[in-house]
Amino acid sequence: MSSIRILIAASAAAALAVAGCSSSKSTSSAITSAPSVSATTAPSVSAPAATGSTLFVTGSVPAVSGAADMSKEPMIAAGGSNPPSVLTGKDLVVGTGTTAGPNDTVQVQYVGSLYSTGKVFDASWTDNGPATFPLSGVVPGFKDAIVGMKVGGRREIVIPPADGYGAAGSPPAIPPDATLVFVIDLLAIQ
User: How far is CA 84 from CA 38, 41, 122, 154, 173, in A?
Assistant: First the structure.
């Protein structure tokens, strides 16, 4: 099963679990409740610039080979020793089409890798081609990476565990507390 499908299924399961709770306290993770990150542990990065999104911060992300060639699968290098503790990203190619909103259904081409090693755990390029799904059905980090993006764009995003699979991971491909890197091409909004 592709990771995007796992993201959608895990998000749906978490939503059902949260809906069944009697507490009115909300959680920032769709998968598990993770410890909150204090402002003192967050990296010092600038506010979003050309991304058009306020849902992640711009900052240092792993190198990407073929970053601007949207006709080919990008290759993501391993990250550094200290992954960001907040959702971090940047536009590799700024799109010119319609801007994605939080309730849209999108069609994307993507590749996902582990920050620590650069090992690809899922890619639509090698699976069944572009994936189409509602943004309301994926984990927060993946959704927030796409919101504010324009059709025709390519964005790299680093998703910390709290906004991805959390302490549970998604074995065997994604270990517990894994920081993930995605390069996402927004092809269409439906």
Answer: 13, 9, 21, 20, 21
User: What is the domain count for the chain?
Assistant: 1
pTM over 0.90: no
Taking the C-alpha atoms of residue 20 and residue 26, their distance in angstroms, rounded to an integer, is 12
CATH number assigned to the domain comprising residue 168: 3.10.50.40
- Each residue's pLDDT tens digit, 78-103: 998 899 999 999 999 999 999 999 99
**Is residue 36 domain-resident?**
no
Q: How far is CA 52 from CA 6, 70, 101, 146, in A?
A: 27, 20, 11, 10
Q: Which is more confident, 154 or 18?
A: 154
pLDDT in tens, 159-178: 999 999 999 999 999 999 99
- pLDDT classification of 2: cutoffs 50, 70, 90: low
Nearest C-alpha neighbor of 140 from the set 160, 118, 167, 116 = 160
